[in-house]
Amino acid sequence: MSAFFRKKPSSSSKNPAPVAASSNSTSDTLGTFLKTDQEIVFTRWWNMHLMQIDLSVDDLTEDIKSGVLPIRLLEVLSNSSLGKIHENPEGKLFKMLENQNVFLTWLKKSDMKLVGIGAEDLVGGNKTLVLGLTWTLILRYEIHKFDTTHQELLNWVKSVGEKHRVAADGGWSTMFNDGLLISAIVLDAVPGAIDLEAARRMEPFRALSYALDAAEELLGAPPLLNASDFNGKTISDRSVILYARRRALGAAHRTRT
């Protein structure tokens, strides 16, 4: 690893609980998969925020049925209290529905557009709607919160790649697969931290593994994706957009300090 890192990272980040490796999916529609990269990455995203209050999810669709975790997540994201809720409503349908209605009502009052989703869907474990709702939360609290569009984020990635002579070809789902773009993002934020020429000579999976480790350690964001998520797969745009956004935030923070 010393041939890749030019200096030892100066900070470390907390890691969420380990999550199983993702399964292959070429679809970005939310109703077509069992355990795809979106479900895995979105679960990691929940845990990235819930870990701040010592909570976590394992099976996203099942674990949020009571309404407690959605409310706690929203309190972390919004830095607000949603008031008194039913803390242990498991097995009590009426109390679970009340919790979910507290969650959904708060979202609606904050002008978040929710279409075709109700408390019954969340309590009933509708995976399609749970993942769709998660993406809506990500857009609000990760993307649009910082006045960033998908195209602006893509332009930033491409500009960093061009600066370091790394191609950003193939769209979101494939552009990070050889690790060079991620290496360029780290190098751009922390000059001298990575030997990009050494990365170019590496086998792609190895370069990707080192680049993801470097991004985690040097840019300080939890690992939403790992090398096995990319390896030989077409990963969904939504998963990679979320990853790129977290890395952009980490890079921006690092360059300010």
Task: Characterize the structure shown.
The chain is mainly α and 257 residues long. The chain folds into two domains: 110 residues, Calponin-like domain (Actin-binding Protein, T-fimbrin, domain 1), CATH 1.10.418; 107 residues, Actin-binding Protein, T-fimbrin, domain 1 (Orthogonal Bundle). It is built from twelve helices and no strands. The longest helix is centred in the C-terminal third of the chain and has 20 residues. The radius of gyration is 19 Å and the shape is elongated.
Describe the structure concisely for a colleague.
The chain is an all-alpha fold and 257 residues long.
What is this structure's SSE topology?
Blueprint: H1 37-50, H2 60-63, H3 68-78, H4 93-109, H5 119-123, H6 127-143, H7 150-163, H8 180-189, H9 196-201, H10 204-219, H11 227-230, H12 237-256
What is the approximate shape?
elongated
Number of domains: 2
Taking the sheet with the most strands, its summary is: none
Overall number of strands: 0
Mean pLDDT: 81
Termini Cα gap: 25 Å
Order of helices and strands: HHHHHHHHHHHH
Classification by helices and strands: mainly alpha
Spans of at least 5 consecutive residues whose pLDDT stays below 50 are 7-34
CATH class category of the largest domain: Mainly Alpha
Helix content: 40-55%
Using the coordinates shown, work out and report the CATH topology of the largest domain: Actin-binding Protein, T-fimbrin, domain 1
CATH architecture of the largest domain: Orthogonal Bundle
Number of helices: 12
CATH homologous superfamily (4th level) name of the largest domain: Calponin-like domain
Instruction: Compute the CA-based radius of gyration.
Output: 19 Å
Percent of residues in β-strands: under 5%
Pfam families: CH
Keywords: Actin-binding, Repeat
Protein name: Gelation factor
Domain Calponin-homology (CH): 36-142
